[in-house]
Amino acid sequence: MTPDPDEPRPEPPAPNAHARTRASGAFTVVEVTGEIDLATADLVAEHLSAAALGPAPDILVDLRRVTFLDCSCLRVLCRAETRAREQGGRLRLVADAPRVRRLLLGAGLMRRFPPLPGIPGERRG
Q: Which residue ranges are recorded for the region named Disordered (predicted)?
């Protein structure tokens, strides 16, 4: 699911208090920070929507700096994953916190979003 290297990536939205987008090799990484709930989920959604544009997006949502997330965040992730899949791409989560695993298990989303421990090809420093 590697996009064409000659195909320009869509311009990401400006960073906000809860999300920023960056490129990492073939991936579009959306880094999410802080508490993600009904009041802040739209700030993450704008980054995920932009990342899902274009052919075959390969999106990694980095949740390692999230201190709280609820079903509002899960709804945003599910919608973005569906959009990415419709474009021939994929969306995966990067998460190492037990609270994220518990939420995914409780919501029945562990098979849809099996969390990766880190960004492939990046060293954690």
A: 1-22
Query: What are residue 27's phi and psi, to 5 degrees?
Result: -95, 150
pLDDT band at 61 (very low <50, low <70, confident <90, very high): very high
Query: What's the mean pLDDT when you consider all of the chain?
Result: 92
Over residues 98-105, mean pLDDT: 94
Q: Answer whether 0.85 is exceeded by the pTM.
A: yes
Task: Tell me which residue range forms the domain holding 59.
Answer: 19-106
Residue by residue, DSSP assigns 7-45 as SPPPPPPPP-SSEEEEEETTEEEEEEEEEESTTTHHHHH
Q: What pLDDT sits at residue 1?
A: 47
Task: Tell me, rounded to whole angstroms, the distance of Cα 74 from its chain centroid.
Answer: 11
Question: Residue 9 domain-assigned?
Answer: no
23 contacts: CB under 8 Å, gap ≥ 6: 9, 29
Domain count across the chain: 1
Q: Find the helix or strand (DSSP H, E) in which 50 lies.
A: helix 41-51
CATH number at residue 62: 3.30.750.24
